[in-house]
Design brief:
25% strand; alpha+beta; globular; five-stranded antiparallel β-sheet; single chain; 148 residues; 3 helices
Length: 148
């Protein structure tokens, strides 16, 4: 069977999930991945739900779940670097297949159930607003999830 755009797109998203799970040695309940592309700027970041709360990638060891995570700066940089590479591949794929390029993606992966969900945005999210960055959007999403 011949692969189509959606197959390649899904593979790249799966790679982002795998990359994010590798960062925590698969010791998370839920993975939240944020990607943005506006005005030729790429953003990728991730946070995690563990058994006792929601944590940013550099704060995982604040959890009392009994695991010790390697959250070194080098490891965080590698996570972001490879996430950005996957995002670049998604952009190239969209261009190659003449598909609209999302300005942002919010992906959620439940580790226990293997359920994946995503929201795609095609309008400008931050670059058309003063004093708003992709980091602000990410932080807002983190706050919303942490409040639940």
């Amino acid at each position: 069977m011949t692969k189509v755009f959606e197959d390649y797109f899904s593979e790249l998203q799966s790679d982002m999930v795998s990359l994010s799970l590798e960062y925590v040695n698969k010791q998370a309940d839920t993975v939240y991945i944020y990607c943005a592309f506006e005005n030729n700027m790429l953003s990728f970041d991730v946070f995690y739900e563990l058994q006792d709360g929601v944590f940013r990638k550099h704060k995982l060891n604040d959890s009392n779940n009994g695991f010790s995570y390697n959250v070194s700066i080098d490891r965080q940089r590698a996570l972001i670097k490879y996430g950005i590479e996957d995002l670049k591949s998604i952009l190239e794929l969209c261009k190659k297949h003449n598909k609209e390029i999302p300005t942002a993606m919010k992906m959620v992966y439940n580790v226990q159930t293997s359920v994946f969900g995503a929201q795609y945005y095609y309008d400008l999210q931050y670059s058309n607003k003063d004093n708003l960055t992709s980091g602000d959007i990410f932080n807002q999403w983190f706050g919303e999830v942490a409040q639940q």
